[in-house]
Amino acid sequence: MTNAKPLPAVDFLKIPETGAPYLEGLKCKNCSAIYLGPRAVCSKCGARDQLAAHKLGTKGKLYAYSIVHRSFPGVEVPYISAIVDLEGGGSLKGNLINIDPDPKNLKFDMPVEVIIKDAGRKDREGNSYLAYFFQPRAA
Amino acid sequence: MSDVYVVGVDMTKFQKAGTGPNVDVLGSIAALGALDDCGLKIQDMQAFYCGNLGQASGMVGQRILQQIGQTGIPVVNVANACATGATAFREAWTAIKAGLYDTVLAVGVEKMSSGLLGGGGSGGISREGLFGSGTMPAVFAEAGMEHSRKYGTTFEQFAKVSVKNHHHSTMNPKAMLQKEFSLPDVMNAEMIAYPNTKFMCSINVDGSAAAVLCSEKKVRELGLMKRAVKVRASIMTSDPWQERDLVMPDVNSCTRLAVKQAYEMAGVGAKDINLIELHDCFATAEILHYENLGICKDGEAGMMIDTGAVALGGRIPVNVSGGLLSKGHPLGATGIANIYEVCTHLRGEAGKRQVQGARIGMTHVIGLGSACGIHILEKAA
After folding, report:
1. Which residues, including other chains, have CB under 8 Å from residue B231's CB and lie 6 or more apart?
2. What does the pLDDT look like over B133-150, one tens digit per residue?
3. Is there a domain that residue A131 lies in?
4. What is the pLDDT of residues A82-114, one digit of tens each?
5. Is B263 within 8 Å of B270 (Cβ atoms)?
6. What ipTM was reported for this prediction?
7. Is B329 a catalytic site residue?
8. pTM of the model
9. Active site residue: B329, B345, B364, B375, which one?
10. Shortest CB distance from B130 goes to which of A36, A64, A95?
11. Domain ranges in chain B?
12. What superfamily in CATH does domain B4-114+203-379 come from?
């Protein structure tokens, strides 16, 4: 059965009943380590039951990247696979879009923002998904 | 605890993925080769550790014995990503160290298919190309770009690693490719994941490698000390917590942790090492490991490749076998194949690619996820 509403493409993308979708990780109350996705124990300090919901920042900086020219069948190339450090802690990996995928356009620590939009892919049942992407932002 | 020695070691010529015999037959070729190398028989082995990834649940070790002699010895099948072979070797070493056995066989074997490794995902929609890339060329490209970010390492410097290793492979008859590539050849080859071009990615191959390990007492009893190679250190680590772990597999910390312990166990330093076979699954990775293994200071890896310090004839030759980039990378076999290479040099039997006067060598592998295996080997006699 197809859902009327889009589904989150990753489990740390939250779609509230009202208001804009957002990314939410976990933060350890003991050592401040930040995680994406559910877990019970902090793998940095080993503390149990100390992980609290932590809304992830929407601004960040480009930490590292690759420009992918060969991927799986059906995946449009080239695209930028980016590692982004978020303001407020945590790092994400995702596609950096709305910029020509050429090394000369990419500067380490260039400011980017997280946007959430349709993933552009559907599952076998025809469900739509929301995904996060990065795009350049003015500093 | 007894010192442990490699008395027999061998590897198959690595061949195009999919063209080799079945894993049991492929593994038996290297196993028999290693036994012949020291004049022992399968009946002399007291235990067998077998590394394979592709058929990790397929009792590959027992099937190898079904090819070469079912003697009833304990067989342990191990899988540890690209550190699988090194893990099998280390388990053999551990068992002798523990005093359980005096003669142990370790084999690594892999049959592969061609194409990209990594990526994938589960349920819903494919994540590949939606949340960046999980393919190995891209993951290791990103690790290389982290180095670039810190020290300004260039595409050209990464590419020079491939030129060097392909050059080395022209002197290794067991390498999959034995072909020279110029810097323009490498840089202008098909871009897979910037900055890794096609020739900067390891080659999927079919291959196996095997080692016979013995306690010191047994080596002396058998009169095998002349060609024996002493295992000065055998270390395995997993990846300690790092803040970007969830988005960027870390091959640096586990290597640094392992090499520190390896130097301590062996009682040697980086300056004492005469050659290294390290995990160049991608050209970008090799650069990182010059610093991780302490053969230069942080930030000097680019200089190491620029000056030829890591080429045959240089200060510390790295991957004179041709490395995974040119010799090939049969995942589960790689960790023993690099031990074969170092042993061959320590015995002075490496022919045209011989590192002259080599007395101490190091092997290093990374299984992404992550496992790091390091061995320091020394000429015995």
Report:
1. B3, B4, B5, B6, B93, B213, B375, B376, B377
2. 999 999 999 999 999 999
3. yes
4. 999 999 999 999 999 999 999 999 999 999 999
5. yes
6. 0.94
7. yes
8. 0.96
9. B329
10. A95
11. 4-114+203-379
12. Thiolase/Chalcone synthase (3.40.47.10)
